[in-house]
Amino acid sequence: MEALTEVLPYLIGPAGGFIAIAVLFFLTMFSLWKIADKHIFPALAKWFDNQEIRYEKLLETHEADRELFKEAMTKITEEHKSNDVKLDSIKEKLKEIKYDIRTNNIRAM
Questions:
Q1: Which one has a higher pLDDT value, 39 or 86?
Q2: Quick check: 16 and 10 in contact, CB under 8 A?
Q3: Is the dihedral of CA 59, 65, 67, 70 positive or negative?
Q4: DSSP, residue by residue, the chain
Q5: Pick from 25, 92, 104: nearest CA to 33
Q6: pLDDT in tens, 86-99
Q7: CA dist 86 → 66, 83, 89, 95 (Å)
Q8: Contact (CB, 8 A) for 92 and 83
Q9: For the chain, which residues make up each domain, given as ranges?
């Protein structure tokens, strides 16, 4: 009991207040770390894993879209080439008609 009475002024005085605040601070930090370790960190890990899965799906759909785009561009190019051939034949026919008109082979109506 005498030992307690010798230490009691130090616990109650200014040093005691600082020690109490320090102990409460470290206990609070330890408690927050335990909560974060038990709840927050696993939730963050799960969120990051879900993000990775989302990005993989996004890349897969992007690759599929890219293939569709390539097919569409190939089809448009082929149609453009066939239209060029048709246009060339129309130009030839127009040249023939102009020649016929100039040579008076066709009379105006």
A1: 39
A2: yes
A3: negative
A4: -HHHHHHHHHHHSHHHHHHHHHHHHHHHHHHHHHHIIIIIHHHHHHHHHHHHHHHHHHHHHHHHHHHHHHHHHHHHHHHHHHHHHHHHHHHHHHHHHHHHHHTTSS---
A5: 25
A6: 888 888 888 888 88
A7: 30, 5, 5, 14
A8: no
A9: 2-102
